[in-house]
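So, is this right?
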Amino acid sequence: MKPRFKNAADIKVGVVGYGGAFNMGRMHLQDMQKAGMTPRAVAEPDAARLAVAAQEFPGIQTYASVDEMLKKSDVNLVVLITPHNTHAPLALQCLKAGRHVVCEKPFAITTKECNAMIAAAKKSGVMVSTFHNRHWDGSVMKALEVVKSGVIGDIVRIECHAGQWAKPGDWWRSSRSISGGILYDWGVHFLEYALQLVDSEISEVTGFAKQGFWAAQSKWGKDTIEDEGQAVVRFRNGVWVTLTITHIDANPKRGMMEITGTKGTFLWEYDRHEIIVRDGDRTTVTKGPNPKEQWDKYYANVAAHLTKGEPLVITAEWARRPIHILDLAVQSAKQGRTLKAKYA
């Protein structure tokens, strides 16, 4: 794809979804504005939220649907801030209309959906990407620094875990059919971190799931997300990654991620880390804060890609990798067997 715009201000952006949860619509428009792009439109079925958007961005165009925005607005970059199962159909609609697209993460729910989005973008000659702003979290940047320094030796395994003993919330992320399942929300972040750290192709994925404990108490009934889900990812260089997200853990693990190397361990929380190194009988523990996140790099890179042709960091193919793992894990749990990866 060749650069289409002389400068970032020519990139007229529209967001789909301006819900109150986390105020993501406002955040995206502000971040794109900081990168030099021009906020142009908001599509949102809730009239009250459209009124909020009009107040926060005076003069912005407001539409009740994506159809209306695509027909009446000159937006050339659309950002999808909608439930997971809508990403693929909405992205395909916008891509076929010749608009560049950024999806909130996860990119989609299935590998097949990712492939369709990649094909549609290529056919229309436009960009499709995923808002993996956490690619630049301070925690993973510190982990990369430590791993590259060699202080913990060669990576053997990475363990990713989050959860507690608690009923899933009464919102769409607790619906398996809408969200994709328990692994998709935070799991896509953890896997994207791990893929940065493991310089190897994916070989195979095994999935496990416990279903039903919370279903009787949830508004979603049988469609409630799993009580616990796990994925085990084997890489061709011998490293393996485990991902566990749970609502039935009465003894939550310490840390969000743990990297075990041949010489030591890197343990991280979002804002701090520990480095534990063994040298003979001696153990050295170093603790410290993580660097500040650099989320602004995502939209700065998108703007540079669309104006100067700079390489896109979060390509559609990169965004497909964690989705392929999640998709295989869900299928594996249902089939009770390990599945080979097609997109390494």
User: Anything to note?
Assistant: The chain is about 35% helix and 25% strand.
